Amino acid sequence: MGLNDDHKTTIALIIVSLALALPALAASIAMACYICHDSRRVANWITETATPNVTTTATISHGDSVIGLDQMTIESYMKVVLGESKRLPGHEDAACCICLAEYDVKEIVRCIPECRHCFHAECIDEWLKMKGTCPVCRNSPSPARVDL
């Protein structure tokens, strides 16, 4: 009988362990999915709260002045709605380097024509209003660069 009781105790321990481990594992997976899915919203919130309410800025570097672009110039750049393949017209990046969120199906991206770097439309629109240069290669995508 002692061996039978040991067997029952072992089975009971396994059942209790699984009863504790499986919900913990499921909760961990659910939390990871929530964090990944919610990262875009958090990144947008951080971008919105960190962005000053300024329409144009100037950066002086080695005798050049780069000023933010006007809305008409920004709107002239190509916008694309991503399909199932999430293929970008320019470089094949998996994430927007401004907000760091991965691209999703049916999101709107805007591409800078000179360098063909693409970003979420709302991210690059705000960036170009303030900076006037590509966030990746720092090339000026328009005649916004003026020698001083």
From TrEMBL:
Lipid bilayer topology: Single-pass membrane protein
Key word Ribosomal protein present: no
InterPro entries, A to Z: ATL20-22-like, Znf_RING, Znf_RING/FYVE/PHD
Pfam family, one: zf-RING_2
Domain called RING-type: residue spans: 96-138
EC number: 2.3.2.27
GO cellular component, one term: membrane
Name listed for the protein in its UniProt record: RING-type E3 ubiquitin transferase
Organism in which the protein naturally occurs: Artemisia annua (Sweet wormwood)
